[in-house]
Write a structure and sequence with these properties.
heterodimer, A: mainly alpha, ABC transporter involved in vitamin B12 uptake, BtuC, 2 domains, 14 helices, globular, B: alpha/beta, six-stranded mixed beta sheet, 22 strands
C-alpha cells in the first residue's frame, strides 16, 4: 500500500503539472493537444528522437544517482553542476594527452579522471568543512560549483587548455577515446551503447551500494539519524565526507561520459544545467536509484521534446521550464494531495450526515 | 450527580487497527476521573476523538446530556472542553499572558496587553494557579508551563479539564503541586479527566478510575476500594509482578572503574566534575539524582559518545578512556540510552536493521562490506520472539512500534550482545506497568548471570527496588555511595540536594 503510494504520488504530481501546463498553453492561444503532441513526438516520435531523448537523459540519470545518494545521507549536494564540469574538464584533459595509450585503456583513464576530479571537488572542501567545522554543504557546494565553471571557462579562454586559434574551445580528445555511436537504429542521434552501459552500471552500483553494503547502511543511518549512527559506532564525520565525495564522483562520471560520448571537447557555454535538473530528477525519484532512471528519462524527454515543440507549434521551449517548475512544485507539496483527498472525504461525509441529523 | 461527559460505545478503527473498540465512560461533575491503561491501550486515540482531532467510526459523545459532533479542536473548545497535552503547545518567546490569550486576544485591532494581564491574573487567583503573567514562558520550569496550559483552557471557558499524561515530564515536587491544583479544581466543582499509566498517581488523585485495555474500557471502579495489584492486573489482563524478585548475591570483582572523570556536554558545559566509581560483577549500581546533575553525561562518556576531558575509564582491567564507541561496544559495553528515539533507534529503519545497528559490520551480518540480510532477519526474528516484541514482524519500521516495544528492541539488541556491563539510562521512562516489569526482569537477570549493571534513573522507586548499591549524584559529583540495605528514601533525598552522607565510600 505504502510502496504503491510512493510510486503513485510523484506520477500524480507530474500529471497535475502537465494538466496545468495544458491550461497555460490554451490560455496563450495554442492548441494544447497539438502542443503536447509535438512534445511527445519530439521526444519519442522516431528512433532518432528517442535516441536524442536517451542521450539527454544519461547525464541526468548519472548525476541524479549521486544526488540521491547524498540526500539519503542527509546531505544537500546542490553543486553537482560544478562537479559535473570539473569531471568533464579532467576527462577532456586526459583525453587529448596520453595519446599513445590503447583506446580502451585511455577511455578508462578518462572516466577515472572525471570521477576522481568530481569526488575531490565535492569531498575535499565541502566534505571536510562540513564534517569538522559544520559549514553548510548547500553554501559550500554551490560556491565550489561557480569556481568549477569559471575555472573551466578560464582554461579554454586563454588558459592552458585552449586550442590554437581564437575560438574558446579545447582540443578534441583522441579519436580512439570517443565512444562509438550506433550504426543502425539510433544512428541519427549521438547515443552510444557504451554510455548506456555505463549509466546502467552506475544505477546498479548505486543501488547495490546503498542497500546491500555496510557502506550504504552507514550512509543511510547517518542520513536518517546522526545521533543514533554515532551511538551505533559509525564515524559520522567520515561518512559525511564519503557521502559528498561519492555524490561528486557520480557527477564527475557524468561529465566524463558526456565528453567521451557527445561533446568530445570543452566548448564555451556551460549552460547545460544538468546538475540542477538532476536535483529534481532525484527528488521526483524519491532518492531511489532505480526510480532515478524513470525520472531521468522523463526530464530527458521534456528537454528534447521541448525543442521540437518550439519548432513545430511555435510555443517557446521555455514552456518546458515552466512544466519543470510546476512538477517541482507539486512533488514538493505532494503531502497536500492526501490532505486534500481527506478534506474532500470529510466534507462529503459531513454532507451525508447533515440531512440525517 | 449529573454526568458531564459521557462516552457511549465509542469505536475508532484505523485500517488494520481497532484503536478504540467499545469505550464507555461517564464523568460526573466535581470528580477526578482517571483513565488508566498501558501505552497503546487507546487512551490517546480516545482523547483525540473527544477533542475533535479524530472522527469516531461509531458511537456517541455527550456533553451535559447533549450529543456532540466535533469536527475540529475549535468546536471542542467552544463546547467547553479544555485539554492539556503531554507536550505543551506554547510559544517560548511570549509571556504567560500572551500565551494564554493567544488566538482570542482582548482589544480590537490593537492588542490590549494590560487587559490580557488583568484577566490572566484574575483567572490564576480564582483557580489557585500562582504564576506571574509577565514572565516569559521560555524561562519557566516545566511545571509552571503546564500551569500556563491549564490557564489557557480556563481562559477559553473550559467546563471539563482533560490532562493527558500530565506528570510524564514533572519532578516529584512539581507533581505534588499539580495534585494540589487538581484538588483545588475539584473543590471548585470542575471535573477533571486524568489520563495516566502510573498506578500510584491514579490511586492518589482520582475518585474513580476507568481501566482501558486493547481499545476497550474494561471496568470502572471507585478508587477507594482499589489496590495497585488489582488495577495492574486489569490493565495488563493477567497477573502482574509489581516487584521483581531479587535473590541476594555476592558481588564479584570490579568490571568498570571510573577514576576522576571530567566530562563536558555537547554545549561545552562541564557536567561531570571528577567522578570516581566502581561497578562489580553481579551487582546493579544505581545512580540516583535529580535531572541535570550529570548522570546522563557520565553514561555517554562511559559509552564513548562524549569525550573524557580528564580522568580514566577502565573496563575489565583495560584502559578504554580513548577508545571509539565502536571499540567499546566490541569490548563489552552495552548501552540503553536515555532517549530511545533520538539515540537508540533509527526510526525509519525496520526492526531487522535496528537490531543489527551495533553489529552490522561484523559477520554474520556482513562479510567484506556486503550485508547479509538473511542473517539479520533470522537473528531479528529470534530476538523479537525471545523479548516478545509486538507486532512480531521484523519488517516493521521502528517508528510504528509503541514506546514499550521500542525499548524492548533496544534491550534485546544490547542484552543479546553478551556484554560485560549494561549501562541503562532511564530504561523505563514512559513505559507502562507490563513493560516496566519486563525491563526490570531483564536487568535483574543480567545481574544474576554475573554481569554488571549501571542503572541511571530519575525515579527513586526504581533505584530502590533494583539496586544493590546506590550512588547519588549532585552537580557533577558523587555525593556518596550507600548499600541498598542501609539506604532510606529520606537520606537519599537529602543527598540528591547535595548533602554528604555521613559514611560511605565510593
Amino acid at each position: 500500500m505504502k510502496a504503491l503510494q510512493s510510486i503513485l504520488l510523484p506520477v500524480a504530481a507530474s500529471l497535475v503539472a502537465i494538466a496545468i501546463g495544458a491550461i497555460l498553453v490554451a490560455a496563450l492561444g495554442y492548441n494544447p493537444v497539438s502542443v503536447y503532441g509535438s512534445l511527445i513526438s519530439g521526444a519519442f516520435g522516431s528512433l532518432g528522437n528517442l535516441g536524442n531523448t536517451l542521450t539527454a537523459s544519461l547525464p541526468l540519470i548519472i548525476i541524479g544517482l549521486g544526488i540521491a545518494l547524498s540526500f539519503q545521507s542527509g546531505l544537500f549536494n546542490i553543486g553537482a553542476d560544478g562537479q559535473y564540469w570539473i569531471g568533464a574538464t579532467a576527462a577532456v584533459w586526459v583525453g587529448y594527452h596520453f595519446t599513445s595509450l590503447p583506446g580502451w585503456l585511455h577511455m578508462l583513464l578518462c572516466l577515472a579522471a572525471g570521477m576522481v576530479a568530481g569526488a575531490l571537488w565535492a569531498g575535499v572542501i565541502p566534505g571536510l568543512t562540513k564534517a569538522f567545522v559544520g559549514a553548510h554543504e548547500v553554501i559550500t557546494t554551490m560556491m565550489m560549483s561557480y569556481i568549477a565553471i569559471l575555472f573551466a571557462r578560464y582554461l579554454i579562454e586563454g588558459g592552458p587548455m585552449q586550442e590554437k586559434g581564437y575560438i574558446p574551445q579545447s582540443p578534441l580528445i583522441a579519436s580512439n577515446t570517443q565512444f562509438p555511436y550506433f550504426t543502425q537504429g539510433f544512428a541519427r542521434s549521438q547515443l552510444s551503447p557504451i554510455s548506456m552501459l555505463i549509466a546502467a552500471l552506475a544505477v546498479l552500483v548505486a543501488w547495490f551500494l546503498l542497500y546491500k553494503t555496510t557502506l550504504g547502511f552507514s550512509l543511510r543511518s547517518v542520513g536518517l539519524n546522526p545521533r543514533a549512527a554515532k551511538y551505533a559506532g559509525i564515524r559520522v564525520k567520515l561518512y559525511i565526507i564519503i557521502a559528498l565525495a561519492l555524490s561528486g564522483l557520480f557527477a564527475g562520471l557524468a561529465g566524463a561520459v558526456q565528453m567521451l560520448g557527445v561533446d568530445h571537447q570543452l566548448l564555451d557555454g556551460f549552460s547545460s544545467n544538468y546538475g540542477y535538473t538532476a536535483i529534481v530528477v532525484a527528488l521526483l525519484a524519491r532518492n531511489n536509484p532505480l526510480a532515478v532512471v524513470i525520472s531521468g528519462l522523463f526530464f530527458g524527454a521534456l528537454t528534447t521534446g521541448g525543442q521540437n515543440m518550439q519548432i513545430v507549434s511555435n510555443v517557446p521551449a521555455s514552456l518546458t521550464n515552466v512544466l519543470t517548475g510546476l512538477i517541482i512544485f507539486f512533488v514538493g507539496c505532494e503531502r497536500i494531495i492526501p490532505q486534500v483527498i481527506g478534506w474532500y472525504r470529510r466534507r462529503r461525509s459531513a454532507r451525508a450526515q447533515t440531512p440525517a441529523s | 450527580m449529573e454526568p458531564v461527559l459521557e462516552v457511549v460505545d465509542l469505536k475508532k478503527w484505523f485500517p488494520g487497527v481497532k484503536a478504540n473498540d467499545g469505550v464507555n465512560l461517564t464523568v460526573h461533575a466535581g470528580e477526578v476521573h482517571a483513565i488508566l491503561g498501558e501505552n497503546g491501550a487507546g487512551k490517546s486515540t480516545l482523547m483525540k476523538v473527544i477533542y475533535g482531532l479524530l472522527e469516531p467510526t461509531s458511537g456517541e459523545i455527550r456533553l451535559f446530556g447533549q450529543p456532540v459532533h466535533f469536527r475540529s479542536p475549535r468546536d471542542a473548545i467552544l463546547a467547553g472542553i479544555g485539554m492539556v497535552h503531554q507536550h505543551f503547545m506554547l510559544i517560548p518567546a511570549l509571556t504567560v499572558a500572551e500565551n494564554v490569550v493567544l488566538g482570542d486576544e482582548p482589544g480590537g485591532v490593537r492588542f490590549d496587553r494590560r487587559e490580557a494581564v488583568r484577566r490572566v491574573r484574575e483567572l490564576s487567583e480564582r483557580y489557585g494557579l500562582a504564576i506571574d503573567p509577565n514572565a516569559k514562558v521560555g524561562d519557566l520550569t516545566v511545571g509552571l508551563q503546564q500551569r500556563v496550559e491549564i490557564l489557557k483552557a480556563f481562559y477559553r471557558k473550559a467546563r471539563v479539564l482533560i490532562l493527558d499524561e500530565p506528570t510524564a515530564l514533572l519532578t516529584p515536587q512539581e507533581t505534588r503541586e499539580l495534585f494540589n491544583i487538581i484538588r483545588a479544581l475539584k473543590a471548585e466543582g470542575v471535573p477533571v479527566l486524568f489520563i495516566s499509566h502510573k498506578l500510584d498517581e491514579v490511586l492518589e488523585i482520582s475518585d474513580r478510575v476507568t481501566v482501558m485495555r486493547a481499545g476497550k474500557t474494561v471496568e470502572t471502579l471507585e478508587t477507594k476500594g482499589a489496590t495497585p495489584q488489582m488495577l495492574a492486573n486489569l490493565m495488563v489482563g493477567r497477573e502482574v509482578v509489581l516487584r521483581v524478585e531479587k535473590p541476594p548475591m555476592e558481588a564479584g570483582p570490579p568490571v568498570l572503574e571510573v577514576r576522576n572523570l571530567r566530562v563536558r556536554s555537547a554545549d561545552r558545559h562541564e557536567r561531570v566534575k571528577g567522578v570516581t566509581l566502581t561497578v562489580r560483577r553481579g551487582e546493579i549500581l544505581g545512580i540516583a539524582g535529580i535531572d541535570g546533575n550529570g548522570q546522563f553525561e557520565l553514561a555517554d562518556a562511559i559509552a564513548g559518545l562524549l569525550r573524557a576531558e580528564a580522568g580514566q575509564i577502565v573496563l575489565d582491567g583495560r584502559d578504554i578512556t580513548h577508545l571509539s564507541p565502536a571499540e567499546r561496544t566490541q569490548l563489552g559495553i552495552a548501552y540503553v540510552p536515555q532517549d530511545r528515539q533520538l539515540d537508540g533507534l533509527v526510526l525509519s529503519f525496520d526492526l531487522a536493521s535496528n537490531i543489527i545497528l551495533r553489529d552490522f559490520r561484523r559477520p554474520p551480518f556482513s562479510r567484506r562490506g556486503i550485508l547479509n540480510r538473511r542473517a539479520a532477519e533470522s537473528y531479528a526474528k529470534r530476538l523479537i520472539e525471545a523479548f516478545d516484541v509486538r507486532p512480531p514482524d521484523f519488517r516493521r519500521k521502528a517508528s510504528e512500534l509503541s514506546g514499550g516495544n521500542q525499548q524492548k528492541v533496544i534491550l534485546a539488541r544490547e542484552v543479546s550482545r553478551d556484554p560485560l556491563i549494561l549501562l541503562a539510562a532511564q530504561p523505563t521512562r514512559g513505559l507502562d506497568v507490563g513493560a516496566i516489569e519486563g525491563v526490570h526482569r531483564q536487568l535483574v537477570r543480567l545481574r544474576n548471570e554475573g554481569k554488571a549493571v549501571l542503572l541511571i534513573s530519575l525515579e527513586l522507586d526504581e533505584i530502590l527496588s533494583l539496586s544493590d548499591r546506590i550512588a547519588v549524584m549532585h552537580d557533577g559529583e558523587i555525593v556518596g555511595v550507600v548499600d541498598r540495605a542501609e539506604a532510606t528514601r529520606e537520606q537519599l533525598g537529602l543527598m540528591m540536594t547535595g548533602r554528604r552522607a555521613k559514611e560511605g565510600t565510593a
